[in-house]
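Sample pair:
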Amino acid sequence: MGLFSRNKVKKNKVIEEKVVQKSEQIVFEKMSSDDDNYLTGLADLLLKGQPLILNFEPLDIDQANKAIAFFSGIVYAISGEIVNVQEKVFMFATKDVYDDGTMEDFLKEIVE
């Protein structure tokens, strides 16, 4: 069993499609694949210091677990943090992103 079990009930609240975009500071991505090139491209952004908010809902369970494991390793290597924004939406970032408290405020705003 992985991070997303097959029997979990979906929550009604999911980050809307309109939020899936790239800003200057945060990358929002609705995951479309577990392709290695796609994942490493996103990882490169994380390594450059850009936080990633990734929606794993479109992926099947095995694909989502592969991607989560990959990004978890990257976050561990950079001494970062993972925040569960919603059921299948996670934020991967370095620890310094959370220093001033604005990221927590931003996350609360997009979840509401």
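The longest strand covers residues 80-86.
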